[in-house]
Amino acid sequence: MKLLKSVIHRFGKWYIQHICRREYEDQQFRRINERPVEFRFLFQQLLRICPTRVLDVGSGMFALPAVMKQCGFIVTAIDNVSDYWLSGMFNRHFHVINDDITSTRIKEKFDFISCISVLEHIENYNDAIKNMFSLLTPGGHLALTFPYNENKYIPNVYKLPEAGYGQNMPYICQVFSSDELNKWIKTNNGKLIEQEYWQFFSGELWTFGEQISPPRQVGKHEKHQLTCILLQKNSDEPLTDN
Asked: Which CATH class name applies to 30-233?
């Protein structure tokens, strides 16, 4: 048994090294995406708040939960592996629990939840937000990033003729607005702590027009296509009618 474990370990190590080397050698520059903005916002909030237990929703194959763990946080990572990922998904950086946030089976409470560029792909987004708030401890924080337009909601920006890419994606890409944000805050006993607005494209909506490099942080009433948001769950329980 000891010899078998040693052989399996050596093979697994060789295979991971092979995959990493192949990805390294196959690198091609396409564009700088939104992750530097989103991850910078997330880690800025983690540094400021210093939570203990963190839940990462929609981890996919990213190394993000592993990096948060290396920073000292106790991290749980979840993703809808069986339904969202058509051919399955494996994260070689961190253990990801197969869980659908719209009907979560997670019972543990968390001081901080991150949901980075995930919510726009969830059709039942209101239940996703509701369940994320339910998994927060009183006073806990929720960091969200997604395509955003202050004035109007778009069910799937990839289906619009002006979209610069995404037409063949197997998932939707919603653009949320202040109406959805205000509803989430009101119905989930939350409050807005911080919101950033970012312009990534020259056009009105996400993927419209030419990409701007580097992206610009702008004001609320300037042209923008993405937002980074920090919400907090109120520590007091909401009043209910008897």
From this structure: alpha beta
